[in-house]
Structure formats: C-alpha cells, structure tokens
Amino acid sequence: MNLYSNKQKWKIALIAIALLLVGVSLFFSNSIVSRVGKRERDRVEQWADAIKKKLELVKLTDRTFTKLRDKELREMRLWIDATKEVSKETPLDQIPDYTFPLKIIKENQDIPVILFDNERNISGYINLGFDTSNLRLEHPELSAKEINTLFDDSLRSLAQTWLKINPSFTVEVFQGLFMTYVYNDSREIIRLEKERDSLLSSFNEELINNDGLVPVLLIDEASDSIIGSNLPKQKLQPEKLVQTIQELKLQNEPLLIDLRNGQKNILYFDNSEELKQLQYFPYIIFFIIGLFVLIGYLIFSTFRKAEQNQVWAGMAKETAHQLGTPLSSLMAWIQLLESQGTDPMITTEMQKDVDRLETITDRFSKIGSGGKLEESDICQTVHHVLDYLRPRISDKVQMERHCNHQIMVRHNPSLIEWVIENIAKNAVDAMEGKGKLEVMVHTAPEWVHIDISDNGKGIPPKQIKTIFQPGFSTKQRGWGLGLSLVQRIVKEYHHGKVFVLYSELNKGTTFRISLPAKGH
Question: Rounded CA gap, 310 and 315, in Å?
C-alpha cells in the first residue's frame, strides 16, 4: 500500500508551500524595510543640508565679527588719538581748536574703555554699564572707601579679561606720564555673539533632543573633532570614538558636507531604533506563528494518538470477541468428530489450528485490555516462538538461536512471541524462503536486547525510518500493520525500543528489540 508514501508527499508539498509563503512574506517585508531605510536616508540628507546652512550662517557671522572688530580697532585708535590731542600741552599764546577731537571722543557711546596710569591705578573709564552705585546696592554694609576699593579691583579684573580679547594701547600723555587704554568689544558685537551662541546652542539641543531623528555624528574632517551628535555620551568618549565611527560606517555610507570654504564635515548616521525593530519584526511574527502551529500540531498529534490508541484497543477487543464464537463452535465440532471415531490425525490437526486461533485471540484480547507484564525467562519465550515457527517455514531457512541461560525480564510472553513472530516472518519473506535466520539474546547494563538477523535483500536506507509507520508495506497484498503493531507492543506496553540495527542491500537486516532490564 502507498498510504504512507502519499502522506509523506503531502507533507513535503505543504512544507514547500509554507516555505514559499514565508519567502514571499520576507521579500515584501524586506522591501518595506528597504523603502523605510531610504526615507530615513533622505531625512538625514535633508537634515545635513540644514546643518550646512546653519554652519554657513555661523561662518558668515564670524566673518562679520572679524570685520566689526577691525572697525572698532580703527575707531579705538582714532579715539585714543583724539584723546591724546586734547590732552597735549599747547603754548599760552595759542588757542587750540578741539572741536574735531572732542567730537570723536563724544561719539564713542558704545565701546567700553578703562584707563590706567603708570602705577596701574584706575584713571578713568567710559561705557561700562555699571559704577559704584551698583556695588553699594549689593554691599550696603561697606563704607565708601571700601566700595571704591572694590570697584577698582573689579575694573582691574575686567581689564585682564579684556586684554585676552583685544590689544591695549599705551600713550605718553605728558613727558614721563603714560596712560594705558584697555577696551572690550562693543555692546553690539556682544549682542551678536550671544545670538550666534544661541543659534549653536539651539542647533545642538535640537540635535540631541530630537527623538524622531536617526542617530547621527557630525565630525570635522580636518581635526576629527565632534561638531554635534545625538549619540549617548559613553559612545563619544575619546577611547571609544574610533569604534563608534567604524560601527556607523558599517551601517550606512557617511555623507560629506562641503562648506566650500576649505572646511569639510563628515556626517555618520545609524538606522533608527524603529527601523531596526522593523527588520526583526517579520521573523518575530513567523516565530510566533510557528510556535502556535507547533503547539497546535502537538495538541492535535496527542489527540490523534489517543484516538488511534482507542481505535487499536477497540479493534483488538472486537477481533477477540468475534473470534471467540467460532472458536467455541469449532471446539464442539472437534469433540463431535472424536466421539464419532473420525481419523485421529484429522482431529489432531484441527485441534492445532484451534489452539493457534486461541493464541491469536488471547493476543488481541491482551492488546485491547493492556497486557499484564510478569517477571519470566525471556529465553524461554524466544525458544517457544521459534519452536512454533520451525515446522511452519521453509526447510531451506537455517535457524540459529543464541540464548542458553536464564534471563529474567518483565514482559508479556504472548505479546513478545507475537513481536518475534512478525519480525521473523518478514525476515523469511525477505530471504524468499532460503537463507539464514539468527536470533541472539544478550544483556546490557540497562537493557536486554533481542537481535533478529537475516541475510535477505535488505531495506533501502530511505525506507528505514518509515517501515514502522501504519500503512507501509512492500508487499502487493497486506495492510502494512505488522511492524506498526510490533512497535506499539514494544513501546506502549513494555516501555522498550524496536529499531533497525543494521541493514545493507543484498546482505541482510538486523532488527533489535530492547526491553528494560531487571531493576530499570
């Protein structure tokens, strides 16, 4: 029968269809992931353009600051010259015209200046934006002298800070008297610098706090310094920065931002967390579906197995019951024939067949009700079934048995005899009625093995795993239930194992029946 082979073909076809569906689903899922990834790259490129424009704005602002500082430097020099002109000595018979210098001095309403004498004492100041009145409000407990001292100290400290920003000017006002002018950027420049710093700060905050943006890292190509990033701080540590850049390179091709002024920046970026999760989403779905399918298969398999067990038990009981009535009738007929003086040879042979049917009925009855196991000699069971088979198989089959001492095993002799008989008959069929049948019983620490060997045509390798399945048969006639019944008796009732130990085409096959040894 081809029941099992057809079942295997259907399984293979269903698996192929399932794999095809999985492949198609993965293709479309990966296609979606690819499109989302492209959109993210477009977003990064748009963001890079925005960075470029902001950086160009910063550069423009810096150039503006440079020009403003140069302008203020020239104004400061002119202011000092005007101050010097007003301060220089003139003959008594001449009336100097200070209109223009005073105009220049008066026009300085924005640049803060502090004036020192030779002894580094404060000689004057303009455009500071604060005076001693501010200190008096902060320190009402101080005296006027202490307020003035504190004010002078504040101006000296402020002058030291200004010297780091702009150069100072030392002018000889009178012979031997020198004055040093220290100035700071005008309030307008300071205001513009604050706006620039605010622009950079907002850019960095936008970069760091923008959760919707993909992870990015902007590096100055020349100095390898970080311009901006929204990556975790631990990844931006100097010792880990190179590794972080390499990881980002592997994810996406970096973008080059050319500011066209000799400066180039490199933008590295990673895939967003959403995209990474989306990449694994199809596999998670397939895993969940597969898990449900597996659980469903196990549940239905368990139900099917329980149903099969019920069918086996029901069929066995029904078979034993159906055989019981004709057996009783046959036994009565044998007694009638014996009483009428029929040839004893006829009644003897009929009695043997009735005894055989009783044995078969007993076996089916035990399968249906669960055969009781008893501690008995397995060798005796083997000898008994082989003695029964010897006159019923061809004389051209040489039969050998190797079991010469007592081996106690928990088993049901009637059912184990059926198992050995089934395998032995298959072996004889495989040898086509001519060959050698060998049965060997030996022990292992946890098992008692019964090996049944023949030198027949062997079993093809692809059939070894299927021979115990219901419906499998190599014969033209038969239901393919013999070895399935063998496996059920050994595994279900005796908690043992039955399998093909060895098989080679045209050389023979060895079946092994393993029963738990005493104490296991």
Answer: 8
What pLDDT does residue 78 have? 74
Q: Residue 116 in 3-state DSSP?
A: strand
- The two three-digit tokens of residue 375, written as one number: 């501690």
- Evaluate whether 256 touches 266 at the Cβ level (below 8 Å): yes
> Model confidence at 42, in pLDDT bands (50, 70, 90)?
confident
Q: Which amino acid is it at 248?
A: L
Q: Is residue 389 part of a domain?
A: yes
Residue 354 lies in a domain: no
For residue 408, give every residue at least 6 positions away whose Cβ sits within 8 Å of its Cβ, in sequence order, or none.
375, 376, 377, 378, 518
Of the candidates 226, 73, 243, the one whose C-alpha atom is nearest the C-alpha of residue 162 is 73
User: What is the chain's mean pLDDT, rounded?
Assistant: 77
pLDDT in tens, 245-282: 888 888 778 877 765 556 677 878 777 776 777 777 77
pLDDT (tens digit, 9 = 90+) per residue, 498-512?
A: 999 999 998 999 999
Select from 184, 209, 225 the last residue of a domain.
184
Sign of dihedral through CA atoms 239, 229, 60, 263? Answer: positive
- The domain tally of the chain equals 2
In a domain, 305, yes or no: no
Chain position carrying tokens 């920065």: 241
The residues near 295 (Cβ < 8 Å, ≥ 6 apart) are none
**CATH code of the domain containing 420:** 3.30.565.10
Last residue of a domain, one of 169, 184, 199: 184
Structural domain boundaries, residue 177 = 112-184
What's the pLDDT score for residue 371?
61
